[in-house]
Amino acid sequence: MSTSANETIGEPSTANNEEQSSKPKILEAQYIVPFILVASLFPLWGFANDITNPLVKAFKDIFLISNAQSSLVQFAFYLGYGVMAIPAAIFIRRFSYKSGILLGLGLYATGALLFLPASITMEFNYFLAALWILTCGLALLETTANPYVLSMGHPDTSTQRLNLAQAFNPIGSLTGMFVASNYILGELKVEEFRLAEKAANPEYANMLPSVVDGKLTQAIQDFSVAEPVAHQAMQAADLVTVRGPYIAIAVVVGILFLVFLFNKLPKTISNDHPLTLKELKETFGRLIANKCYLEGVLAQAFYVGAQIMCWTFIIHYGMTSVGLTAAESQQYNMVAMGVFLASRFICIFLLSFVRPGQLLMLLAAGGFALSLGTIFLGGYAGLYCLIGISICMSLMFPTIYGIALKGMGDDASLASAGLVMAIVGGALMPPLQASMIDAAPIIEGIPSVQTSFVLPLICFIVICVFGYRAHNKYKI
What we know:
Distance between the termini: 46 Å
Strand content: under 5%
Radius of gyration: 24 Å
Number of helices: 25
Shape: globular
Number of strands: 0
Largest sheet: none
Order of helices and strands: HHHHHHHHHHHHHHHHHHHHHHHHH
């Protein structure tokens, strides 16, 4: 009887152990080194994104252009994703993931090095061209790295695996923000001019930050007319400051190119179906018929637009609604990235218990609520709400990616191109928000920089709907 009782007690324990052992691992042993190598790429586009975001404000003051014109920095940056994504996917399918990585690193380094002639000629459009080439490289890297990571193991753990790899992305972002704050924004002569002008006019302390910002911008314009030679020298010095970090990252990317060149990577794409024109048409046909995928592409476009708007215009928000300097505003942007990184690891843990679609829906609802606070509260309270949005955004990109590519197989490389093309949402929305900032407020009594955040608010509604459908209709 005692023996029988022990056997009865032991049976569930054995079953539980078998269940635990049969559960697929996030990362299997044979993929650890390749995963680490590929994961090392994720900080690269994080760095590029977040060292470039502050250039919108910096170029506005250096070249004396409008917010809408300076936001062309983001348009050029993200346009590269739209142009290169599908050619990148075809290239990867024709050759290999490794070939895509090498070509992507080469274009990244080339674009970064082109900041040198752009700064010498002092031409804003040359900087835009350099950024476009750089992001063509980023498009190749993202089109390659994301599906490659998804393929490194069991499909059931693919979303967790991609979230783990994407967790390295904010490390690059934080580095980019730190460099932008301390080695670009903090060193600009035009920022020194603004501070000196502020000190010379103590009455500015009693004015609204948005009014003071306008007066300081006018003072720079007056200086450029009164002393054009001195202003040109200031521009030249500032452009040398801007180019320095890009030359440095070109060297780092060049070293990584050599590392990948001399390392063997596993082949996880079967190429059972050669990429003929017929196969290409059939693949596109399957993708167009996949509603979850199409909705994922749309949600990704709105997510990227929201992310770039929140991380670009936090500087304008801090300067206009709070009265901070550009460098001080960038410090708050770094805080936002810090909570983004911490939230990413928490969300990876939560994905073990909650479906990706459900968690995505809840976080998008949180982003919507915090966007309302950003618009209506203003001041430090509004700034803290804007920072809090980063907590909600941390999960979104890789989770939308994983949901949309679930069970794609060999179609994943071309499907990935559509999701990378969705990043062009980041090219279209910031100029629209910048135009709203330049224009009159849409809500009387609230500065236009605050009301412009209605655009991210709309984005979170779209993402929330996708999360709801992924959870309830597609059971993901």
